[in-house]
Amino acid sequence: MADLVGKVGLITGGGSGIGRATALAMADAGAAVVIGNRDASKGEAVVDLIRGRGGKACFQKTDVAQPEDAKALVARAVSEFGRLDLAFNNAGIDGEQVPLHEQDIAKASALFDVNLKGVFYCMKFEIEQMLRSGGGAIVNTSSIFGLNGYPGWSLYAASKHAVTGMTKSAALDYAKRNIRVNAVGPGPVETPLLAKGTGGDPNSYSAFVPMGRIGQPEEIADAVVWLLSDAARYVTGHTLPVDGGVCAQ
Ligand code: NAD
């Protein structure tokens, strides 16, 4: 297992699915974690779980679409644990699966506010803090939809391609300043988000996956912990597909 002992990390969308599994994995790897989530009860439940396992964690109610919330999340890491070394910018929503001309303009705006601007706001304040303390590592959640196109998902795919592009360019901005910026590109993963997007039948996506099954949140978490750890110290600007082979097709 990758080693995050002594590190302080934050996770957005840490109350459910991939974020929840990654919060647990980061804590198991030795990091103190700050969980930012829009839904307080889910985020607090993950904090209780980590503390019950002997780890260090706290919760900060956060809507990543609000810049002041992103700033407060970073400030909480510093006030609670003294520093910020790691960040997993993961909170996201999926939007509607309809052709582009049927996409709703107000819903499009909300999607970009969370999936695109939310990652920008968080990275901005995380990087300001990491520059002050001498470095850090960031992982953003993109998607296989951030690497390829899929019918009906033009806006979600646009938001995730934006995350892939922001990851690459930010990695270059800070490559000489000891801040690595990477992303994960999950394939279909068994979470409440996928259940909603598939009308309650997430396994319907298995047929599109070369390995013949959807992924588990813990399988994404393992990749994120590796990317955040010093084991990945020469990796930056990369979006790592964790997708059962989807992007190899
Ligand atoms: P999920 O719905 O299980 O969890 C998302 C969490 O984010 C929830 O706890 C929710 O409360 C929180 N959240 C939503 N909007 C927020 C906001 N504005 N501010 C703060 N928190 C907010 O979903 P998941 O499947 O774990 O998705 C996590 C990330 O992974 C998303 O970015 C999603 O686009 C991406 N992703 C998921 C899959 C998949 O198949 N599940 C595949 C590729 C990428």
Automatic annotation (TrEMBL):
One of its GO terms (molecular function) is oxidoreductase activity. Keywords: Oxidoreductase. Its EC number is 1.1.1.-. Gene3D superfamilies: NAD(P)-binding Rossmann-like Domain (3.40.50.720). It is an enzyme of class 1 (oxidoreductase). InterPro entries: NAD(P)-bd_dom_sf, Sc_DH/Rdtase_CS, SDR_fam. The keyword Cytoplasm does not apply. SUPFAM superfamilies: NAD(P)-binding Rossmann-fold domains. It holds the Pfam family adh_short_C2. Belongs to the short-chain dehydrogenases/reductases (SDR) family. This is 2,5-dichloro-2,5-cyclohexadiene-1,4-diol dehydrogenase. It comes from Paludisphaera borealis.
